[in-house]
Amino acid sequence: MKNAVLLLSGGLDSATCGAIARQEGFTLYALTVDYGQRHHFELEAARRLARALAVREHRIVTVDLAQFGGSALTGEIDVPKDRAGHEIEAEIPVTYVPARNTVLLALALAYAETLGAADVFLGVNAVDYSGYPDCRPQFIEAFAGLANLATKAGVEGRAKYTIHAPLVQLTKAEIIRRGLALGVDYSLTHTCYDPDPTGKPCGRCDACTLRRKGFAEAGARDPLEG
């Protein structure tokens, strides 16, 4: 079995991505990043998912992107609510965290190189999503090239890094169906951008809207909706 680093956010997509990686025979080393988000419910979800996925090791690393601000997920900016699909797709929203996936992948790459692993998995999606530029296939391809240029293992020819994004061209419904087929327990996940103090989803932000749409189109019940 080959080792792989899984970027595990605690969300629906990363849970499904982890299940796919495990099905493909990888031994998983999970990396969760506390990047200064306004709540820690997704970090708690990541811990639950790491146990459910039976990862070999789960590391939580702190990199405080909130110091820079510029996002509703890290600063005092209102999270958009009650937006229709065309509004979500119209522009890059204020929930975009500047350079987040670039930072997360760089950390995953560092972790992978120390493990002697050449595979990194992340659950980005470029179909039913909020328009983030660092969720597109072009970004994944570019980072893979960077990984092989910027590492000792890559330069010495000991590793050819592959960035796996198995969900990137799937709809949210397709992701959910795939996860259910693999036995993913979506009650363990957290999606909402603006939960209440107990962690209950708001049901109105873009993330909640896309999740609800995905479960409806998949013909499945969301276990977080009671």
Distance between the termini: 38 Å
Question: Any low-confidence stretches, pLDDT <50, length ≥5?
Answer: none
**For the largest beta sheet, what order do the strands appear in spatially?**
3-2-1-4-5
| Biggest sheet record | 5 strands, parallel
Question: What's the CATH class label?
Answer: Alpha Beta
Class derived from helix and strand content: alpha/beta
What percentage of residues falls in helices of 4 or more residues?
A: 25-40%
**Helix count?**
8
> Approximately what portion of the residues adopt beta-strand conformation?
5-15%
Number of strands: 5
The CATH homologous superfamily is called HUPs
* Rounded mean pLDDT score: 94
Dominant shape: globular
Q: Structurally, how many domains make up the residues? A: 1
Give me the strand/helix succession: EHEHEHHEHHEHH
Report on this model:
This protein has 226 residues and is α/β, with parallel strands linked by helices. The protein has one domain: HUPs (Rossmann fold), CATH 3.40.50. 38% of the residues lie in helices and 11% in strands. The chain has 8 helices and 5 strands, in the order E-H-E-H-E-H-H-E-H-H-E-H-H. The protein has helices at residues 12-23, 41-52, 85-90, 100-115, 137-150, 152-155, 172-181, 206-218, and strands at residues 3-7, 27-34, 57-62, 119-121, 162-164. Strands 3-2-1-4-5 form a 5-stranded parallel sheet, sandwiched between helices. It is globular and about 50 Å long.
